[in-house]
Amino acid sequence: MRLDRLLNRMTLTLSTILIVLGGLVAPNVQAETATLMNAQLSLSEPGDAPGLYASTAYEFNIPQALDNALKRGVPLYFVHAIRISKDRWYWFDRKILESRHLSRLSFNPITERYQLSYNGLNNDFESLKQVIPYIKNNRHWQIAASNVLAGHPTYHVETRFYLDTSKLPKPMQVTAAGSHDWNIASEWEPVSVPASITEAP
Q1: What pLDDT score does 102 carry?
Q2: What pLDDT is recorded for position 10?
Q3: Are 76 and 60 a contacting pair, CB within 8 Å?
Q4: Residues 6+ away with beta carbon under 8 Å from 177
């Protein structure tokens, strides 16, 4: 009888420990995937500053929680990023440069309009549906000098998109870290480099 009681107590204690440990383990936060639809590199066009330019386009959904935050006065920052790295067979790739295009999205409760800001420019929109395509698609932004890839066959280019939660107010960063609504992101994905760019003088 004593042995039975002892086994029951041990089983109960073990179950309690497992429940407590289970509560301490952070849930697996799944990001809202941003899917790369298109990525292109090109050299400067007439009227542009000389350089290497990128155009990237992503598809993703904006959760309702983010729109609610906007209407409470919390701006959101979205990033299109490009990085150029050099292959090294004996170690990790060496990063040559990384360029980021930052867009700030906010909501004005007085005018009830959304405002998108980037590169010192501000544009107003009547609805979130109208402004989102300008966040998803980033056309022809300068990332480097025109000859940065010339004569470097071991260099490769990758792109990524993400919601930059590091720019949120500190208390909200904690909330964002535990919510999939606040984890809009893509993986680093390769971008093809046209021969005309690697051969540029």
Answers
A1: 97
A2: 46
A3: no
A4: 29, 165
How far apart are the C-alpha atoms of 66 and 168, rounded to whole Å?
Answer: 12
- Among the residues of 25-177, which ranges form H helices? 64-71, 128-136, 170-177
Query: pLDDT tens digits for 130-162?
Result: 999 999 999 999 999 999 998 887 889 999 999
Residue holding tokens 């729109």? 67
User: Sign of the CA dihedral 125, 63, 137, 150?
Assistant: positive
Segment 120-124 mean pLDDT:
93
Instruction: Please choose, from the candidates 170, 200, 184, the residue with its C-alpha nearest in 3D space to the C-alpha of residue 77.
Output: 184
> Can you list the positions of beta strands (E) in 13-120?
32-33, 35-43, 52-59, 76-86, 94-108, 113-118
List the structure tokens of 120.
């010192």
Q: Are 71 and 100 in contact (CB under 8 A)?
A: no
Based on DSSP, count helices (H) and strands (E) in the chain, helices before strands: 5, 11
pLDDT at 129: 95
Q: Tens of pLDDT along 8-33?
A: 444 433 333 332 233 323 344 455 78
Closest CA to 146 of 85, 79, 197: 197
Q: What pLDDT sits at residue 198? A: 83
* Residue 33 φ/ψ, nearest 5 degrees: -65, 130
Q: How far apart are CA 175 and CA 74, in angstroms?
A: 13
